[in-house]
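Justification of resources, computational component.

The compute hours requested in this renewal are based largely on the per-chain cost of generating structure records like the one below. Each record pairs the submitted sequence with a full C-alpha cell output. That output is archived, and it is also reused by downstream analysis tasks.
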Amino acid sequence: MYEYIKGTVERVGPEYIVLDNNGIGYQIFTSNPFSFSKFQEETTVIYTYQHVREDIMALYGFHTLEEKNLFTRLLNVSGIGPKGALAILASGQPEQVIDAIENEDEAFLVKFPGVGKKTARQMILDLKGKLQDIVPDYFPNLFTSEKFEEKTMASKQLDEAILALKALGYSEKEIKKITPSLQKEELTTDEYIKLGLKKLLK
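The structure output for this chain reads:
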C-alpha cells in the first residue's frame, strides 16, 4: 500500500523506529533500527512494505528500494516470515546470502535465526538464479554508519546493539559468547550490530 514514507525519525528502539510524517507517527520495523539514528534531525525517505495477516498489520522499512525487494523475495520462501527476513538483512552483508544461495551453501544459511535445513534448502530452490536484478551497485552501500567521537557512549551503544540482536531472534547464550570481544571495541550501535552479526554467523 505504501511505496515509501518521507519524514523525520522521532524515535529509535531495538525493533522499530517511529517516523513522523505531518504529525502522524508511523511505527516501522527494520532490520537495524539504529542505522536510522542519523536521520533524527533531517527529512528522509524510508521504503516500506505493509504486511497484513488476520491478527496483525505492520510496516517494515528499508534504506533502499533494492533492500526492500530482497526482503519481499525472502518472504516468498516457505518458512520465512518478516522477522526471519529482517534477521537475514540485518547482517549488512546480503551479498553473502546471495552467494550462499547461488552456491547452495546450506551450512551458511542455517546460521540465521529460524532458518533450519529445510528452510535453507527451500531458499535455494526458490531463489537461486533469481536475484541478479537486485545485486548490481547495491550491496556495498548497505547500512552506512557514522562513528561517534565520544568514547563514553560505547557502553550505551553496545547495550542497544545487544537488545537489537535479541530482537532479531538470537539467544542470550549466543550473544554472551560474543559480548567479551565486542566490549573490546568502541563503535556505534550500528557498527556493534554488524560486528556482532558477523561473529554470530561464523
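The two ends are 38 Å apart (CA to CA). The chain has eight helices and five strands.
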